[in-house]
UniProtKB/TrEMBL annotation:
It comes from Legionella cincinnatiensis. The lineage of its organism: Bacteria, Pseudomonadati, Pseudomonadota, Gammaproteobacteria, Legionellales. Keywords: Iron, Membrane, Metal-binding, Oxidoreductase, Transmembrane, Transmembrane helix. It comes from the Bacteria. The chain crosses the membrane at residues 12-39, 46-65, 77-94, 115-137, 149-166. This is 8'-apo-beta-carotenal 15,15'-oxygenase.
Amino acid sequence: MLNIILGFLPWVLYFILLGYNQYILAISTALVVTVLLSFNELKKGFILTWGTFLFFLLLLGVTLFTSLDWLTLHADLIASYALASIAGFSLLINKPFTLQYAREQVPKEFWESKIFIRINQWITGVWTASFLINACIDSLQLYTAFNPWFYQTISYLPVVFAVWFTQKFPDWYKEKKSRQLIEQSELAQKNNPFLQHNFAPVTQELEVSHLSVTGLLPKDLLGIYVRNGPNPLFPPFSYTYPFDGDGMLHALYFKEGQVTYKNRFVNTTQLQVERRFGKAIYGGVELPFIRDAKLLKPTDPSIPVKIGRFIHVIRHADRYLALHEATSAYEIDAQLNTLGEWNPSNAAEAIALNAHTRLDPQTGELFTIAYGSESIITYHVFNKKGKLTKQGIINVQHNYMVHDFVITHHYVVIFLCPVMVDFMAKMKGKHFATWEPQFPTRIAVLSRAHLDQEIIWINSEAFFCFHFANAYEDKQEIIVDYVRYPDFMMATADLKPAFLYRTTLNFLQKTAHHQQLDDRNVEFPRINDHYTGNQHRYIYTPACFHSAAASSDIYHALIKYDLNTNSSIVHDFGQDIEIGEAVYVPANQAKQEDEGYLMLFTYHKTTKESLFVILDAQNFAASPLAIIKLPQRVPHGLHGSWFPGAW
């Protein structure tokens, strides 16, 4: 508001000096003040500033070199019409003059927001109307005999109203529009398929011991299986799976042949606010608004998107972390209690990291990366004791969405697929993630020893990857196994089927050779994590043999790929059963890569119940070793981990 008032200062001084019949001085003062106080606005092309400068420059020239008495006689009338013309012109070319001032006060991500633009159209329109009204008042003085003080007094009213409107209208309009959008979106959630069937959230937090087991539990199982997933506590008014929601952890504790089930919400500060209100307050990536924002406390989170830490859960240096995407992690304990935001270096701002990290099984180092709405990738490396040892920024060409990455003995490999993210895009009427196939997929190869040195860049055709299985070195090449999509069209259509791929990178020749390993629709590839960065033989993926789309994340079979023999084995649970990611758990004192178990949740559509299944990785197609009956339905989730040992 102050910047707009300063923009009018030359005009205010002009009108004041006119009152003392100092016509030339009024024009000169207005012109000088415009240049001195608004030089930056002139450089930036502000319409009001340039209109002011050109008007007074022209007026000064005409006054000095002509003898038009009517210019002096009707100076205030001409100025009022000039102001109205400048403001009206900015509306006519769809660049409201107040928009330029507002952008100086508002973060850049809101500049293209329809609401932001509409607010400034209204404000500029009111200022234009106030100038026109004043021009009409000045015109009336030519034909009526009222006291001049009467006209001067009523001429203040339109300006006072415009000032009041500029201060009050934005908040009123934003609240009105957000309320309308929230109400519309809330109704739409009733038909959201990702809030129905086994995607529907559960709200009860349980702890049940001595679960019923069919079959025999492996005697060597000692540890915790934990899986994370989106699970809104309150009915959301905006929900895009798998990008929104609260985090819920489902855990099974194995000890001495007994199993205990427990589930808990990741109790973020945003969730604490919603518990206080008893309803959803924060929006999602497709509707970033805060409901009842005026009722928030100053210490409450003000980000309009729910960030629920629901994608993954890991353990490093005896700390358990619930992860989201491109933001801080939340620390939990072995009993799933939320301890708070993870800030290992006690920095002013917690470290941002993605849902997928990479743990080197030889060194114990944890590698993390993160992206955001800016064209950078950040990286951090922690030693086995959890101390931050390396950090840095990779400048990239676009604001890529980079969900996962891989490491080898000597390298970090990051695929920059042309999916661009803007978490405030909905404010601009766009999708938060857009597929830009005119750009290549760029592959970054970084030296682990010298992460801050020159990066090897390899360009490839455009494709998309959510998840990697693993990578390893073979002489002058890096072998990368992952699940690949032909594109990323979530904004307009279902994701197309994804297939297991192998890419061979020659970082000396800067080439990438791609090979499709299978033609079945798969996702969530996992390996024996002890082989991270090393040559692996086996990959385990959920699969769907009957769906033409991958966006539902509903799978009914597991595939075990043997990359040495180019063969695979299927464990098909049947069309009545839905599954998600399976986690590989090595057997105690295992000697072979596949000497262990696959653990996963299953959902039975007919009985509407969830079970926990343990498969023998070496006898993959056989009946499960053990099936554990769960005390409640476990909704489809995302990623999980096995944490061996006592807790």
